[in-house]
Specification:
9% helix; nine-stranded antiparallel beta sheet; Beta-galactosidase, Chain A, domain 5; 3 helices; 417 residues; seven-stranded mixed beta sheet; mainly beta
Length: 417
């Protein structure tokens, strides 16, 4: 081997070593998050009350209490009610789970363009949309500093280019039962694809159903499963347990100036100003922006995809992986961009619940289940409790027919850019 060849070989090896060090710097940190556990299973009581008509509970439902839906709102906004405690916080902990598979690109130190980062010491990652079969392509882990500093775009005022038609309607005088014979104010938001109940005093979603109002994808129960809901940030924004005030009382109100016939904007904030959320409801999905946080947090969905009877029998899709079993799979890993997850119930409803984090990061995302027959809950947490309190972050979720799921995720990712 000539002297020039040996010099070139040494240079090439040096580049490989530097690239390996840079890649390791952006691997997911598998720090664990303590998730709230409910105080124990409770008996199912009550049903839903809508428009003055009383209906019995859904077959197989386990939610205590129900809801009363008021009239659709005009432009005026209702103020949030005083807030209330959250019960039990006994934590369950999951050990590090499986590793990324399915051809996901190796993590690199290069910033993902979508995450607002710049490539330093590696190749900037691709930013594919969700692809067929649950795999949207490959993407590198975004530059965390770039992510933290890049501003989020304004949310659209209308459901622009929506694949479905209709309107977003608000019933401001709706209520939800949070303890025996105790109703508290909630916003009932009705769209062509889902019905949402947003509890005003906690700034949390405690009911998500299909437009028929039958299949419950959260199944909050004040006596049995009070820790089901969205966004469950850890220090804030969880439904109340058995009538107790939430951990952080919130004031929640509609913003008419930022709403339209196909978009409802709602703000939730704590009295001390440490927590502030923006809720945006569209024809196809709902979006939550964590504008300000009083502590590091994770964004969680805790619920019953497809309803309590089939919650653990759904198919689980993660971007970058093939179809998984919602019951047997458990993981603590960073999803590639776009960071989406989908729970598909193929049998009775033929629908999926999808969740999207709108910007890339290097934080682990946690998936686990609670399997006792009285609990049957899936838990998915973006950021695993480690999203910095200073980081403004945005998430979306919604219901869609399984056959339209990939196209819907593509649309939501594109709309919220």
């Amino acid at each position: 081997m000539s002297s020039d060849q040996r010099t070139a070989q040494r240079s090439f090896r040096s580049v490989l070593v530097l690239a390996s060090v840079a890649a390791a710097a952006c691997l997911p940190n598998h720090d664990l998050d303590r998730l709230n556990a409910g105080p124990g299973a409770g008996a199912a009581t009550g049903g839903a009350v809508s428009g003055g008509t009383t209906g019995g509970g859904t077959a197989g439902a386990s939610a205590s209490g129900g809801a009363t839906a008021g009239n659709s709102s005009g432009p005026a906004a209702g103020a949030g009610t005083a807030g209330s405690p959250n019960g039990g916080t006994a934590g369950s902990e999951i050990s590090n789970g499986g590793a990324t598979t399915g051809g996901q690109a190796a993590q690199s130190a290069g910033g993902n363009a979508q995450a607002g980062g710049t490539a330093t010491g590696g190749v900037a990652g691709n930013t594919p949309l969700a692809g067929g079969g649950g795999v949207g392509g490959t993407a590198s882990c975004g530059d965390t500093a770039g992510y933290a500093n890049a501003p989020l775009p304004d949310v659209p005022l209308f459901s622009e280019g929506s694949p479905v038609t209709g309107s977003v309607d608000l019933a401001e005088t709706a209520t939800w039962e949070v303890a025996m014979n105790t109703q508290q104010q909630a916003y009932k938001v009705t769209t062509p694809t889902a019905i949402y109940f947003l509890h005003l005093a906690s700034g949390s979603l405690l009911s998500l159903t299909d437009p028929s109002g039958v299949t419950q994808w959260i199944q909050y129960s004040y006596g049995g499963q009070p820790d089901r809901g969205i966004p469950m940030l850890g220090g804030c924004c969880s439904p109340p347990a058995n009538g107790n005030p939430p951990l952080v009382p919130m004031t929640t109100a509609k913003d008419s100036a930022q709403s339209s016939s196909t978009h409802l904007h709602v703000d939730s904030s704590s009295a001390d100003g440490k927590w502030r959320l923006s809720w945006d409801f569209y024809l196809t999905h709902a979006t939550v922006t964590v504008e300000q946080a009083g502590a590091d947090y994770g964004f969680s969905y805790k619920g019953t995809p497809g309803g309590p009877a089939v919650a653990l029998n759904t198919d689980l899709w993660l971007n970058g992986q093939a179809k998984l079993n919602a019951l047997t799979y458990a993981a603590n890993m960073d999803l590639p961009y776009p960071e989406w997850v989908r729970f598909a119930e193929p049998a009775s409803t033929g629908q999926s619940l999808f969740l999207v984090q709108h910007r890339d990061d290097c934080l682990s995302d946690l998936y686990q289940t609670r399997t006792p027959s009285s609990e049957k809950t899936v838990i998915f947490t973006y950021g695993n409790g480690k999203i910095p309190s200073t980081r403004r972050t945005r998430f979306s979720f919604g219901l869609v027919a399984n056959s339209d799921a990939d196209a819907r995720i593509n649309y939501v990712v594109s709309l919220m850019k």
